[in-house]
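Hi Y.,

Following your request, here is the sequence exactly as I used it, all 171 residues.
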Amino acid sequence: MNDAPFDSVDPGSCSRHYSWAPAPEDPTERVYAGVDALREIIRGERHLSPGAHTLGVRLTDAEEGAVTLTATPAEWALNNGGTVHGGIVSGWVDSALGYATASVVEPGVGYNTLDLNVRYIRALRLERTPATVTAQVEHVGRSTCVVQAKVTDTDGRTCASASGVMMLFRP
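Below is the corresponding structure, written out as tokens. Let me know if you'd prefer a different format.
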């Protein structure tokens, strides 16, 4: 695959340099739909969205109605208190909601976040990452998809739980 994205962090100089894959020229290939498309991402045949790549997530498992992502933050993701910034965690959850939705819609169906509610349960410390983000579809209808998500640290402790509604754009 051409233009493979990369992410490099240099803690010594407090710098980060990364790239993302260009958007496909064919608009139908920009929306991921179906488990097969997600498995192509896992195998490296397709790229994550630029936003998900920027947030340091990797899709590691996908089945119909459920996905698992691994989130690997670095110092760039910390707040002033030294824990992973809640906005970063929220971004991980939003990505997971989208990929879970993708696992249950047919090609040609678009989707976007309509509602997102994140509950922060405990601070996520860098030394307890990579975090695991799981998302499971609770209901899929004609115009919306309801998804539940959870973020856990390397000790298996829940750091955040979330629910969201994705708006579906059917042809």
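The chain has one domain: 7-169.

Thanks again,
Q.
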